[in-house]
Amino acid sequence: MKLSFRRKAVNAVMLALTGVCTVLAVGMLFFILGYLFVEGGFSLNWNFFTKLPVPVGEVGGGMANAVIGSAKVLLLATCLGVPVGFLAGIYLAEYAGGAFANTIRFVTDLLNGVPSIVIGIFVYTVLVAKEGFSTYSGGVALGIMMIPIALRSTEEFLKTVPVPLREGAMALGATKSRTIATVVVPAAIRGLISGMMLNLARVSGETAPLLFTAFGNQFWSPGWKQPTATLPVMIFNYAIAPYPDWHRQAYAAGFVLLTFVLMINIAARSIVASGFAHKTR
Amino acid sequence: MASAVTIPPTARPKGRASFLSRVFSGDSMAQALALSCATLILVITALLVGELWVHSALAREKFGLRFLITSVWNPVTGEFGALPFIYGTVVTSVLALLLAVPFGVGAAIFLAELAPPKLSDAMTFLIELLAAVPSVIIGLIGILVLVPMLLIVVPPIKDAFGDHPPFFFSGPFYGPSLLAAGFVLAVMIAPFIISVSREVLLAVPRDMREAALALGATRWETTWQVVVPFARRGVLGSVFLALARALGETMAVTMVVGNTPKIATSLLSQGYSMASVIANEFSEAIGNLYPSALIEVGLALFGLTIVLNALARLLIVATSGQEAK
């Protein structure tokens, strides 16, 4: 039986179109990367990491305070969000079952779906309204955003650990918690680490929750109780300003932030890829 | 009745206990710690909903449901109606879906059905990197590259329509607009649609494809008439997830939408979105009613995304349950 010309043509055209879609999607990535790397790369210089921002009209300056501010906020967020999500994930994967576990999963998905700006409002009403803009409130906001993903990735990776491993440990007399700490978690460690890295990469670009928590600052912000500049908020403020020199700085900041995010992403994915190859085959 | 054999409790091995074993020696304590972390998530979420509810009380009592359907937003006279923001959010999100869905599903079909596995994995990796680009960076490119580009491209298209352009393409064009926001959102949600749809398509059983091919269908007919219908609920789920993300997206939209609270039918007009108005005005909102009104906008946004997320998950779960057997 011969295919009609029309069917052959439709087949070829539509299949080619799907290919075009894919090329466009990937092309978009290269466009964004390429543009940012060219513009940002030329704008970036050593001052960016060592100098404070300068007032409007003066050329030069850097965003050293924002780099440090972002690092502090992310450090606090990781210290708050990762342990909570990790332990809760252990609870779901190893202990819980039934309705309570499903409730937690459901609520975690809910929390994960909350728009980041709403998390910002929440932290504002709880912390900032009483004590003012501060570095730690920014850390808390991002920490809350890290919990759901930390939980989900912990649970998923622990579930890939075969049950006989647990049974083996327990048959040797280990308690349940000891089994988890010395057998289950080490067996899944690559996945867990990569999950946490992806989590960090995701929140490091978050801007909306920082707008009314960490706020912004033209100067250094010692300690945790003062408002601080962060890279994403700086990019936002500098990009919407009408000054070409600020746009140049925004590109440089975007370049730094994107390099950080993409490097973590690539590292995390290569860790987990090598881990699975090693474990399952 | 079998006599129970009593097993003497295993003596714990003597010797130097490692740090971990000392910390975890209390088995029930470890469980309690894990449980308390799990409970903390419930507490945080409950607190979040509670705070939004309590702090929006003033606006909710003063305006009632009118808040959602009136369009005057005037902090000076204390009149607040959220309709322009709801309108802007819906229009930009729908526009983003119109742009991203055909394109995303097309790419997903290519990656799941046609591309050799190695190429497919490599492309998916790149597309997932695109999903990882922070929204503020998409916004940066949006305002400094896309908007100037639209300013060159749009006027000739408008002129081509002559004196009576269609309602969605009329009025003056200054650059920042609902159109620009829709484009930016489309770039942000397309990677989600592609990677989730690809997973769903890959989960369609092989037999289905083989049966269709054996009956003489072409590759495209197999895909379009057998595989895609089989996976449609999952694909729809990915679209809902993307929509939920688009609705809550703040920074990229704020940077290109023009931030003007008005309702205009033209996509070239400036607009505003629910998330952007909070981002722009919340830290400067003074008095009691103004912040309360903004928090109510947040509450409405929260409700909207929750509903969409729940719907999306139900669809995806329903589909994966179906492919399991």
Task: Report on the architecture of this protein.
The complex is a heterodimer of chains A (281) and B (325). Chain A has 281 residues and is mainly alpha-helical. Chain A contains 12 helices and no strands. Chain A folds into 2 domains: 5-43; 47-280, MetI-like (MetI-like fold, Orthogonal Bundle), CATH 1.10.3720. Chain A has helices spanning 5-43, 46-50, 64-95, 98-113, 116-131, 135-159, 163-171, 176-187, 189-204, 208-211, 231-240, 244-280. In chain A, α3 runs parallel beside α6, α4 (98-113) crosses α6 and α11 (231-240) packs antiparallel against α12 (244-280). Chain B has 325 residues and is mainly α. Chains A and B meet through α1, α3, α4, α5 and α6 of A and α1, α2, α5, α6 and α7 of B.
CATH topology of the largest domain in chain A: MetI-like fold
Domains of chain A (count): 2
Q: Describe the main β-sheet of chain A briefly.
A: none
N-end to C-end Cα span of chain B? 41 Å
- Poorly predicted regions of chain B: none
Largest interface: A-B, 92 and 91 residues
Radius of gyration based on Cα positions of chain A: 24 Å
| Range of strand content of chain B | under 5%
Oligomeric state of shown chains: heterodimer
Order of helices and strands of chain A: HHHHHHHHHHHH
* Count of distinct structural domains of chain B: 1
- CATH homologous superfamily caption of the largest domain in chain A: MetI-like
Question: Going across the major beta sheet of chain B, what is the strand order?
Answer: 1-2
How many angstroms separate the termini of chain A? 44 Å
Q: What is the class of the largest domain in chain A in the CATH system?
A: Mainly Alpha
SSE order of chain B in H/E notation? HHHHEEHHHHHHHHHH
Query: Treating each run of at least 4 consecutive H or I residues as one helix, how many helices of chain B?
Result: 14
